Amino acid sequence: MTAILDSPVVARPGGGKNRARTRDRGLIVFALPSVIWYLVFTIGPLAAMFIVAFMDWAGLAAPAKLNGTENVSRLLDDDRVLTALKNTGVHLAVSLPVIMVGAFMLGYFLNLKLPGHRVLRVIMFVPALISLSAMGMLFVAVLGPTGLVNSALEQVGLGEHATAWLADPTWAMPSLILVTIWSGLGFTGILFAARLSAIDDEIYAAAELDGANHWQKMWRVAYPICRDYFGVLTMLQYLWTLFGSAGMVLLLTRGGPGEATSTLAWLVYRFGFRSPEVGYSQTIGLVLFVLGIVGLVIIRRVFRARY
């Protein structure tokens, strides 16, 4: 009996490998539904976009046929696309830096935990709780010909400066940019506040001993620590602004006056649902897709870690 207990245990050849294979098969089985979902509802529509972009198709009830590069040739000669591309660039170039810099500063301010910071958190989060349609109605009431802004100008004796802000070719795009900033600033600031709260107070205390003020602690201490997170939020805000502008344009200006507020995302909706020219819409969608990828790559390189 003692001899049996004292005898060495002989491992079965290949036993560890078999267990590993069994475990891997189990993981594959559990991951399979997610992979199928991703292939069907993400890769599938993406591949379909590339196919439909080279088709002449007026909608679900209409016959579709391939038309080669006719949509591409039309896109290159379409002044509306060029105008929308310029408007998209202006929209991003103004709103994205303002949102990101302003949100980071608001997030830092919230972490100072001054009196009233909890109320400010709630106020900043309000735009995220308002639906897109409600937001559109709100700003029509604010920026309309008889809206809040014009009424305020008249009350202070500046009625001659009142205008139909959303219907004025000069002010329509700035108004759209203002709405974008208002809708994105608070929520992004809350996300920054969550990240900044993880920074040890001793780091700020050490900076204060070196004579750093709040501005220096914000940009020379907090920002380098959160640089990668800043880049992630910039990428997300870039995508939200690039692809999400169609909804606000639809509710506020419908691309007008003329083509003053027409963006690429709006043209995708316009040709896809209002014309309808689904094939041409997806050709513009390809341009939007390429801009999204290029923008993400650039932002990633700008904010990549440097250590």
UniProtKB/TrEMBL annotation:
PANTHER family linked: BLL4140 PROTEIN, DIACETYLCHITOBIOSE UPTAKE SYSTEM PERMEASE PROTEIN DASB
Protein name: Multiple sugar transport system permease protein
One GO location term (cellular component): plasma membrane
Membrane spanning residue stretches: 27-55, 90-110, 122-143, 171-194, 229-252, 279-299
UniProt topology in membrane: Multi-pass membrane protein
Residues making up the signal peptide according to the UniProt record: none
Organism: Asanoa hainanensis
Database matches in InterPro entries: MetI-like (IPR000515), MetI-like_sf (IPR035906), UgpAE/MalFG_permease (IPR050809)
Keywords for the protein's UniProt record, in alphabetical order: Cell membrane, Membrane, Sugar transport, Transmembrane, Transmembrane helix, Transport
